[in-house]
Structure formats: structure tokens, C-alpha cells
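Whiteboard transcription, Tuesday session. T.W. wrote the C-alpha cells on the left side:
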């Protein structure tokens, strides 16, 4: 029986999967998480609800995987030879327009996690834990190069700092996050906390 389930799950081509994920993101931007239904996804993508549930199990997993799929590659694949270079390269993977759209989307989803434990669980499994592991690899390379002391306590807060800057720019400055803002923040806050000089 597990073999049959696996065979069924593999019928969707990568191209079709990408189309489905894009449709999910479009619907999220239009109606938000709470109003998003599997019926709406099925109608938008000309899929059956049975196929969607068989492939993803439910709305929370589908949304989390759609967000993960939209990410521009793995964090740990960025390797410029310096931590500053890596962090700056990560910031420039998305232009300011895409960053603003993603910020609005993530703000709405962050609110939804407070009342949807299944979404919070899916986000932790599909996004938070994998990205924390990726950031740990980037930081480990910096430690191996001698840029960061192995016992620097700021290491465990790097993701908090990065997400905090991204998420609170609108609240504090009434501005969207931009590449220039995030690069300045990295140089003024993140790298000094890690003991990395930026000059």
C-alpha cells in the first residue's frame, strides 16, 4: 500500500507542481490564509480536491510548501568566501518589488499561525527548521574560515535578527524592506554582533 501512495504522489510533474504553488500564492495574496480553501485551489488550478489532498494532505502543508518552493534556492548554496559576502548575496536574490510582495504575504501568514496550529507546525517543519539548518551551515563556514568565534553567543540569534529586520521595517519606518536597508542592517547590526568587521 505505501508503494501505491508513493506512486500516486509522484504523478504531478515538477512543472505542474510549480503552477499549483504559484496559484496558491496568488490566492493567498488575494484572500489570505483563513479564506483560502482547497476548493478554491482546485478550481484555480483545474485539479481535483482529491488530488490536492492526496499530494499535500491539507491546506497548511500545501501553503508551507508553496512558500518554500518560491524561495530563490538554498541559503547554504550561497558561498562567496566571506560571511559578509554571503549575507549580502542572500539579500540580493530578490529585488525590492518581490521583497515587498513577500513581506506582505508573510505578515498575513504570521498572523494566521496564531490561530492555526496546523499552519504553525507546517511552517516550522517546511520553512523554519530547514532555514535554521541552512543558516547554521553558512555560519559554520565562517567559523571554519576564522571569521566568527565558535562560542560567539550571537550565532543563535542570526535568523531572529534577519527576520526581525525584514518584518518590522514597515511597522517602525512605514517603509518596505529593501536590499539597501537590509545590507545596511547586516553591516551595522548582524556582523558586529558576530564579531565580523565590515571595513
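and on the right, the sequence the group agreed on:
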Amino acid at each position: 500500500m505505501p508503494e501505491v501512495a508513493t506512486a500516486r504522489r509522484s504523478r504531478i510533474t515538477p512543472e505542474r507542481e510549480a503552477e499549483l504553488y504559484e496559484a496558491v500564492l496568488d490566492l493567498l495574496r488575494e484572500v489570505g490564509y483563513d479564506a483560502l480553501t482547497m476548493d478554491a485551489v482546485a478550481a484555480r488550478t483545474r485539479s481535483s480536491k482529491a488530488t490536492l489532498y492526496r499530494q499535500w494532505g491539507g491546506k497548511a502543508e500545501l501553503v508551507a510548501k508553496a512558500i518554500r518552493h518560491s524561495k530563490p534556492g538554498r541559503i547554504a548554496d550561497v558561498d562567496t568566501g566571506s560571511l559578509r559576502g554571503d549575507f549580502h548575496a542572500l539579500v540580493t536574490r530578490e529585488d525590492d518589488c518581490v521583497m515587498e510582495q513577500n513581506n506582505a504575504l508573510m505578515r498575513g501568514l504570521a498572523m494566521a499561525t496564531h490561530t492555526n496550529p496546523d499552519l504553525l507546525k507546517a511552517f516550522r517543519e517546511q520553512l523554519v527548521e530547514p532555514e535554521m539548518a541552512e543558516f547554521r551551515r553558512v555560519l559554520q563556514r565562517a567559523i571554519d574560515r576564522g571569521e566568527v568565534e565558535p562560542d560567539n553567543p550571537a550565532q543563535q540569534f542570526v535568523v531572529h535578527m534577519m527576520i526581525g529586520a525584514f518584518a518590522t521595517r514597515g511597522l517602525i519606518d512605514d517603509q518596505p524592506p529593501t536590499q539597501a536597508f537590509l545590507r545596511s542592517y547586516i553591516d551595522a547590526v548582524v556582523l558586529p554582533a558576530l564579531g565580523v568587521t565590515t571595513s
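Someone added at the bottom: Residues 20 and 46 are 9 Å apart (CA to CA).
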